Amino acid sequence: MQSAAGMLHLLDLTREEFQAWLAQRGHPGYRAGQVWQWIFQRRAVGFEQMTDLPQALRAELAGQFLLDTTRVAAHRTADDGTEKLLLQLADGEQVECVLLRDDRGHHAVCISSQVGCAMGCVFCASGLNGVVRNLTTAEIVAQMLQLGRLLPPENRISHVVMMGMGEPLANLPHVLPALEMASRPDGLGISARRITISTVGLPAAIRRLAEQGCPYHLAVSLHAPNDELRNQLVPSNRKVGIGAILAAADEYFRLTGRRLMFEYVLLGGVNDQPEHARQLIQLLRNRSALLNLIPYNPVKGLPYETPSSRATARFVEILTEGGVNVKIRYRKGSRIDAACGQLRRLVAAAEGPVAPAVGSGPA
Ligand code: SAH
Fold it and tell me: What is the pTM of this model?
């Protein structure tokens, strides 16, 4: 994004574009590699830190490009080591991102793709006020850089999941270059196989993603085993339908070879009944897929409930007997409101109204 002063953010340029910019001004191409190394490996936040560049070039870069435009507006840490940042963007909007640690030494980050969300899933905090805008490439990358700085120098981010605020497939022109910076060896060096894109299910964009040839994991948020129920829970389904989403997901599997993941938020008494499990078996039995069950993380003001552990266990049992690969994913850091848009709302509520929302999210 261009600032009021008309300055470009350096990370809104690909490395090749940056190299061309340097060449035009008579600088050797390897300077791009040095700058990228400072940003992605050495965690620099300003050009003045890049001490192996000539002073004149550092000044020229600082006069031309923005680098560190996000500010930590809130930082919370949970007992399990999960850390959540609320980042303030240059225009005052805010997005959430999370660092999750596990006992295998993995450091996963969960990042956002939009300010708000237009999909309107009825149980999710992110879309309650609709979508405000897409994030830029630099803003998506900034979340990973900010979270990476929370780790000691010897640790690196190992996994990326696009499961924060927003619908990543509605913002592919910025999501794809950001993930390329995450996965390139001269970027953050996180293998594409350790990057997951979670989508509400937009068939045309799923196909476009498949054709990119990057073997990211695809996670489809299903949440219901039939269109009648899914239309209620996930309004964007009304124009699409489960059949078209599964067809696009199958195509993704065919082209990339990545096993599909389906997400299913369990809402007590709504989509957690034995009949729903049996319908899910029909949908998933013959697919190379993993079903991730996510017990609902309550959102203040919404009428949904986390199912009892008995209902959850019964649901899992029916699916397992029916031959579906199923896992329960307990959300980490729920006590620090580490789920989807909850921290942003909390802080906004405490500080007064946020910018007026545009878009179609339910009130
Ligand atoms: N737009 C993308 C990314 C959204 S967040 C998508 O729809 O997949 C990632 C997952 O968290 C989605 O499956 C979403 O439905 C789920 N989710 C949202 N709110 C939740 C809540 N309160 N409790 C549990 N899971 C939630």
Answer: 0.92
